[in-house]
Amino acid sequence: MHIERKDKNMAQFPAIPIWTDAYLADTRHLTTIEHGAYLLLLIIAWRSPDCDLPDDDKILARYAGLTKGQWMRIKPTIMAAWNLENGRWTQKRLQKELAFVKQKSSSNKRNADARWLKTKETTNAPAMPSQCQVDAPTPTPILTPKSNSISASKAAPKRGSRIADDWTLNESNIQHAQEKGYSDAEIRSVGQEFYDYWTAATGRNATARDWNAKWRTWVSNDIKFNGTPEQRKINDRNKQGNQGVIETGIKVAAQLRDDDRGMSEFLRDFIDS
Hints:
CATH class of the domain at 20-98: Mainly Alpha
CATH architecture of the domain at 20-98: Orthogonal Bundle
Distance between the termini: 122 Å
CATH topology of the domain at 20-98: Arc Repressor Mutant, subunit A
Strand order of the largest sheet: 1-3-2
Mean pLDDT: 78
């Protein structure tokens, strides 16, 4: 059986926080090689238990990926940002970030433990005896005057329904159409169109929660697209008048074609007739 062995050198906090603005502000003077060496030393220090480095040039050169000669040439520039104390190199900003990460990690762990304990207590809580529910008195609902005034049969359904097979115009529907100028005959005609349309309609759009409101919308759209009843009467009269003019013009043109008299004499005799 294969057992995965945890690397003893694995970092306690694998992700190293690097604030790019602060880093660039502090290291603009470094060359590319110096940047690489400096970052490698930061990473290795971060992975160490105490976030520090040994005061050993041979080891530091290996950490930086350089020969000892290369390392000795750039060491003054690189280690200017580090502090040497008790034979160990530390970086002040790195130490502050480690302290912050440790504090945050500890806080997160406490919160997680508290949530786990709360969840465990809820899960293990004894169930309430069913007898408690049986013996508990049922509260009497208090009806307000407003709720008493509305019967269940008149309350609008929560879900939409199709138009009833026996739907007819009620007094409210008729009154609304009359207020818009519809005659009784026009109301019956529009009402039949309304019923036929919604009876044949299918899908979700064929349902409504309030068919009285649906009727009012239908009347409004009828006026919007076809004009008010009074406007339609005027339009019908104008159409009839225009049709008469057209028919008269056709009649005049036909007779004029077969008449040898002049136009003015013909029109005078035509009008007199």
